[in-house]
């Protein structure tokens, strides 16, 4: 890049132009990869449920809560909602389930479907030619008393151990007798317990099981799959009713109005920053403004490419990084001015200015990155959106300040320009 700054700068500019077209709502990227908007921008429903864990033992509470969350996520996905969020908060016997449904139209239907009790069913199979028929039985999750996971004795994969009460043991005994060598499927809410995975959801009965203690095993059952199955077993086995505590509906009109105001504020803020940089640093300010525009296009392109759900908090995090990107340029320019005062040639002053400014820029941005990571992994909901956009924005701003701005200065510093 030192020998051919103009070439690399041209590549970055071309990529930025492509990113700008890509992120435009009516650009070429809108058909196959639309923007994902959060509840506060697209409108929808925000539901808060209480999970009753009074009848659940302390050891099984995390599993029950996780199982319920998985079931609710599966139900929410049936609505075709873009980027729904389902998360839980637990403290002792008190646990809450929060569901955000951006763009949902029929809130009443969503509440009705989400609030149903999870149903766990054991289903027999019959082979009819090349097709498989699934035959319901009277063995359901109400007979399951618990489930746990363990390493497979063969050393490959995991196993799920589950137990049935006395009535369930009798039903299961008869069922396994007549299904030896056949698959016995486990369904939750009428679908395979592992979505689109009949192999893991339909273990083969290897023999009669008279005592109500069974095991599901297989080399393809990973720790993640085993935990998911055990969690959903426990959710169906140990009733944990959910009760709607709070319901908030955000209209699409209000969300659209919020989006327009936020975008307008972001544009005004960016323009004011650009004008300040040009007024104060003249030619260098023009370079910084051009680098800032490239930064905005590239960052928005990354947001859309990785399908970041944009909320008001997320946009706020991005707007914050715009100021931080310019802050790095200010540190660099001030260092360059000092080197010019020392009498260094322009090209040498540019390189020395970047070298001396880099430690301050690095340390400041690393501290922000650490903060963003902590916020993302130890919070939830809209705070995570803020942390994610802040993290990505800081990373790209480092690239913009150290690479894009430097290429601008290298491309023009070799020419005998008048001092700005």
Task: Summarize, please.
It is built from twelve helices and 13 strands. It is α+β, with helices and mostly antiparallel strands and 420 residues long. The protein folds into two domains: 5-38 and 251-413, Up-down Bundle (Multidrug efflux transporter AcrB transmembrane fold), CATH 1.20.1640; 45-250, 2-Layer Sandwich (Gyrase A, domain 2).
Which key terms come to mind for this protein?
420 residues; alpha+beta; Multidrug efflux transporter AcrB transmembrane fold; Gyrase A, domain 2; 2 domains; four-stranded antiparallel beta sheet; 12 helices; 13 strands; 54% helix; elongated
Provide an overview of this structure:
The structure is a single chain. The protein is 54% helix and 20% strand. It has 420 residues and is an alpha+beta fold. The protein folds into two domains: 197 residues, Up-down Bundle (Multidrug efflux transporter AcrB transmembrane fold), CATH 1.20.1640; 206 residues, 2-Layer Sandwich (Gyrase A, domain 2). The strands form four sheets. The chain has a four-stranded antiparallel β-sheet with strand order 3-4-2-12. The protein is elongated. It starts with a helix and ends in a 7-residue tail after the last helix.
